[in-house]
Amino acid sequence: MAETNTKRPIFSQEETSYELKVPYLKKLFRFLLPYRKWLFLTIIFMFIATVADLVSPYLLKKAVDDFIPKKDFKGILAIGVLLVLTLFINKECSKNKIKLANRTGQMVLFDIRKALFDHVQSLSFSYFDRNSTGRIIVRIVNDVNTLNNLFTNGIVNVITDMSSLVLATVIMFSIHPKLAAVTFTVVPLFLAILFATRNAIKKNWRKVRRKIANLNAYIHENISGIRVIQAFVRQKVNKAIFKDVIDDVFVSWMKAIKINNLFGPFVEICSMIGTLIIYWYGVKLLKINGVTVGTLIAFVSYLDRFWRPVVTLSNFYNQLLVASSSSERIFEVLSIEPEIKEDENPVDLSTFKDTIEFKNVWFSYKDENYVLKDISFKVKKGQMIALVGATGSGKTTIVNLLARFYDPQKGSILIDGIDLRKISFRSLRKLIGIVQQEPFLFSGTILDNILYGRPNASLDEAVEVCKFLGAHEFISQLEDGYYTQVNERGTRLSTGQKQLICLARLLLQNPEILILDEATSALDTQSELMVQSALNKVMKNRTSIVIAHRLSTIRDADLIIVLDKGQIVEMGTHDSLVSKKGVYYELCTSQIRFVKAG
Ligand SMILES: Nc1ncnc2c1ncn2[C@@H]1O[C@H](COP(=O)(O)OP(=O)(O)OP(=O)(O)O)[C@@H](O)[C@H]1O
Ligand SMILES: [Mg+2]
């Protein structure tokens, strides 16, 4: 059970800061504002419950001191009725308090989670480059969950406990100041030990949280990578690593709990010492100084109502620490501005009329590492342009810029002479359609997926599009036809079939400019023919930019742009580039050799 394990993959560990960060907590409590009415009502219920609870020791004192010695049965009966009444009020109010507190708490969590989700959806690609899916899910699910306790019980309980503690103290001092003062001599001892152990407790819980973060990361990685894991028969190794990871969680948890659990008994000891003092000192004061048996009984009850909240209060402090580190991370996400912003007065480009132009475009994903260097070219309406080049040469990057998933650092991209940054998101997305390297389907029916870009289109329209693309046949052969359920990765469908569904989705949206990123690269020859013929139909009468590894598919392109390490090295038609015997010619001949050898 070693701390570090050389076999273990490196996790992106989440450092949990365990400082109480007031500004973040303030921001967090702002989420409570819309519910202040409910919160207020909750506090009223809680206050009534507390007062009712504090009345009963006093009633007991009255019975013991006044009515029992005088054998006043009427009085005793009255006290009994009152005791039942206070108990009833206490329970009823507590019940309502818990119900309201949970309701308010869940509403607040709902709002926070919604704010996070909406915000993350608006962020640019660059954010998703920097943060893994697992990390983002942890923000929206786990970090919000850790606030659950605070908002549903923490805040309300702490107010209840504080008032119970304060009121009990006040009542004890008002009944008998001297006895109260002596009883509370344990408090300084308690505080001293509390401060001494606090850091150890904090440190151990921090460790537990880190280990749990590791566990999450490891599970996430193993589930998303399951195909690779099984392909490499790594299950056994991974099982061993996983055992280590959970062992770590277990050990650190047990250690933290051990220290934490010392606290409860310790409070009980303090409470016990207090009780002993009441009996020892109180009996001495009996009859003199107005101390009665009833007073002693009431004191012991009030003392219990003083020490009980102490445990919950210290837990609340821990809750606050956890909440402050979670809210720090939540607000960190909420404060990230999307890098790609719509212009304040965006231009609506309803149709594409003339040209797309890249003008001296420079781009880097990070720092000064330019992956596109001084790229300039023009595409005329109706043309088909092909981008070719070795892997990593920047083909996908060029189309990412054209779709405005990123903005270039230098130079500009113009559609009909208008800078991309000026065009409204809506019209740009309507103008440009992209077929991505890996087809992505959402969970739902095939029809849902086809209608994704135009939800109000009809089934007939979808069928028409699928017939046109040659997808209708296989879809209608599935058991539920267009209503067949697919899961988010579209398993049960072949890659070619998924690609066809994605094309149908695109075609229904009817974009004027089409971007195809190696749409046929992952297909076998049969499916490639099927998809290619569908693509040819889609590209007809449209402007298209095609990235293809198989050069045979782009022979007819109006312009072929050859990229190398982010620069354009050649440009021209297939015939002109072949006769030039340059880079493109090399690429063509090596592919022919490869095909022949295969
Ligand atoms: N999201 C990203 N963050 C940082 N660097 C990236 C990112 N995407 C790509 N790159 C880098 O930019 C360069 C160009 O990548 P790009 O994806 O445009 O190549 P490509 O020509 O499409 O390659 P392939 O043929 O393999 O698809 C590569 O060096 C790559 O490592
Ligand atoms: Mg690519």
Automatic annotation (TrEMBL):
MF (Gene Ontology): ABC-type oligopeptide transporter activity; ATP binding; ATP hydrolysis activity
Keyword annotations from UniProtKB, A to Z: ATP-binding, Membrane, Nucleotide-binding, Transmembrane, Transmembrane helix, Transport
Listed Gene3D superfamilies: ABC transporter type 1, transmembrane domain, P-loop containing nucleotide triphosphate hydrolases
SMART domains: AAA
Keyword field contains Transferase: no
Coiled-coil regions listed in the entry: none
Transmembrane segments: 38-60, 72-89, 155-175, 181-201, 262-282
Domain ABC transporter: 356-590
Entry-linked Pfam families: ABC_membrane, ABC_tran
Record-annotated ABC transmembrane type-1 domain positions: 40-320
Cellular localisation: Cell membrane
Gene Ontology CC entries for this record: plasma membrane
Highest rank taxon of the organism: Bacteria
PROSITE patterns listed in its UniProt record: ABC_TM1F, ABC_TRANSPORTER_2
Membrane topology note: Multi-pass membrane protein
Keyword hit for Nucleotide-binding: yes
Protein name listed in UniProt: ABC transporter ATP-binding protein
Organism of origin: Caldicellulosiruptor changbaiensis
